């Protein structure tokens, strides 16, 4: 059973779904906003921040829709992080839905980290 709690965030992104997908599903795209550098070998992605490496397995992906990763070091089978593109039927606004897990006392800090990273993505996409 997980000690971590699931949380979700929504960020409106002024972008086409296909362009946004290239930033969430490819090492080069993720390396521009999510981490300092990202490498992949098949389904295994290595994320590098300030010289520290974390590995995540690509659990699933749907073209122009979503990607789901599982941190290799996290032994909890229930946890993952997912980036999903949603399009509002009425306004056609494109949003990026982030689903992640954190310890209960670290959720606010984790949300702030995602917000900072998505600010980076906003500045790149324009």
UniProtKB/TrEMBL annotation:
One Pfam family named in its UniProt record:
START_2
User: Any idea where the START-like domain is?
Assistant: 1-126
InterPro entries referenced in this protein's UniProt entry, alphabetically: START-like_dom_sf, START_2
Q: Membrane spanning segments where?
A: none
Superkingdom of this protein's organism: Bacteria
Q: Spell out the Gene3D superfamilies in the cross-references.
A: 3.30.530.20
The protein depicted here goes by the name SRPBCC domain-containing protein
């Amino acid at each position: 059973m997980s000690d971590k709690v699931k949380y979700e965030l929504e960020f409106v992104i002024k972008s086409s779904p296909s362009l946004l997908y290239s930033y969430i599903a490819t090492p080069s795209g993720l390396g521009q906003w999510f981490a300092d550098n990202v490498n992949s070998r098949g389904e295994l992605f290595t994320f590098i921040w300030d010289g520290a490496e974390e590995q995540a397995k690509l659990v699933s992906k749907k073209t122009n829709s979503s990607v789901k990763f599982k941190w290799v070091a996290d032994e909890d089978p229930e946890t993952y992080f997912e980036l999903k593109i949603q399009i509002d039927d009425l306004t056609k606004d494109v949003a990026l839905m982030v689903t992640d897990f954190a310890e209960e006392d670290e959720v606010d800090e984790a949300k702030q980290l995602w917000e900072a990273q998505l600010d980076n993505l906003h500045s790149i996409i324009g």
